[in-house]
């Protein structure tokens, strides 16, 4: 147990330099890479001299780079950086849109798990049969399909032809806010009508986003299940005369451990796919916000979104690592 | 002999001929190369035999060959130029459906979609090759240095790598691609040879010179995102290779570190890296299409698969061909690279190669036996 604690502390400590690194890269993106940040922020080549001066003044662009860096980071933490396009604090804008993206990722995760794990188990049990080949090809097709293409095909089927989904806006959030994720909140508070609306709006985008990862997870589940079932303890269980299903349950437990890693990695894939999925389905999440900000050269927004995505990703990986160490006593670094 | 084996025999002969041609070309330049590398050539042949024995691999190789071919010759065989706007001559070509004026229909400038797709093949191929050429060597070299020297250098390089790996890949690429064009347009405008070279690469006309910075920005952005993965893989395999006896002896006879790394360690770890490169070719094509779908990178009239979809979404679902066809092309291209990469993983496994060597020899022997028997029968 003491060793576990030591590992957790060490893992937490390596978290700090990673965060600092992230802020450095984000700073480089906004302040160092544009040849003339003030001109770019003020609207590119056509910007008036007055606007450029104003931007320089407001965002401390006349000061040395380390002052600018400190200004940016403290500004983001204290929520004092004002977005030039909307005149709101930029973190407010991003925070308002984050639940939509998070909810989208949750739905996508649901599909990744609901398709990936059963398919993987089936293909492991029916190894080297047609089903196994099918899962292998399904995984390859999953990673090869452009998200936007699949999205529009499904919109064509379900929206244009069958008309069973809607693509406008987002259903309202329930009045009692607990987790800030509307679909969970409405379920907890027992508002099933709202829950149904949220599911109706999000299931298709979630499926499109999760489609990519489902095949990968299926392949991974298959391999790790096959590895677990070739262990000596399985032979022992069989020799003892344990029924087949109970044997599988033991193998399942052990094979699910490495799967957690791949689920952590999948989270990054889902976040990466979020901007495209949100653009296709018109979901007002932070991905769509980032795409709009690029179009208008809204640098503070790009910075904030990039930082937020990175933070979420890093925290997800941290949770996976900790989870991994806690549930698997064999893993110690 | 079954049908399968018959086709396999043809494939084997094609691949033998291909390698024969390649070896002939090299040996005309460097005399005695063939004699010196006999075992290497035999190994190459075996790799192709192994590939020929996996149907997905053959399909993948076929698709990849087609797309590389289209990438090189697409703009030349396209029926119309990408910057020819028929809408000015005939307003009916505006979003004309497939079969009316053009085979695959037209976009909102009346341009032939087929020509755009062929031109887009070049854009996609050039971008993916440049991203791989920028990102992979950088990652490999940094990984080799980190793994070989270890200690503080390792720590430093890996911390920087971790910084980049802390971002979801597409998000970082989006951010870089959004802010880079500003600086790059200075570079391109002040250095005309680079502009000329890029225009030639993308098969564009001089009028598009101003739009190049956005394309170059996408390439650099993706290269920045791509190298950390390779640094990490290379470092991992270098760490295990470093302890091997041949590295020890190379060090003992006083070879410089750079030579040990590049000439001795690298050839031993290149196999898995090659598989990743093949798979990543597909991922780069997909990511590039995604970026241009979000409005980054190519701007009209430059033809780009993702961009065609981006422009086509305004007319969805009426102009469905602007979304279905480019998306399908991207899908096929990426699928080809993924199938090939998946098969390569098996091909590069020496154990499998040995078993195939055994099988091929057996087949050849039984063939000669058959022939002998037939000859005997004839007599």
In short:
The complex is a heterodimer of chains A (333) and B (379). Chain A has helices spanning 2-32, 37-41, 49-58, 65-78, 90-125, 130-144, 147-161, 182-188, 192-229, 232-240, 244-281, 286-295, 299-327. Chain A is an all-alpha fold.
Note down, in words, how this protein is organized.
The complex is a heterodimer of chains A (333) and B (379). Chain A has 333 residues and is mainly α. Chain A has a domain at 90-287: MetI-like fold (Orthogonal Bundle). Chain A has helices at residues 2-32, 37-41, 49-58, 65-78, 90-125, 130-144, 147-161, 182-188, 192-229, 232-240, 244-281, 286-295, 299-327. By secondary structure, chain B is mostly helical. Chain B has two domains: 1-52 and 350-379, no CATH class; 119-348, MetI-like (MetI-like fold). Helix content of chain B is 77%, strand content 0%. Chain B is built from 14 helices and no strands. Chain B has helices at residues 3-29, 33-36, 38-52, 55-77, 113-149, 151-165, 169-190, 192-201, 212-242, 245-252, 257-293, 305-312, 321-347, 350-378. In chain B, α1 runs antiparallel to α3 (38-52). The two termini of chain B are 24 Å apart. The model of chain B has no long low-confidence stretch (mean pLDDT 85). The interface between A and B is large, with 54 and 48 residues.
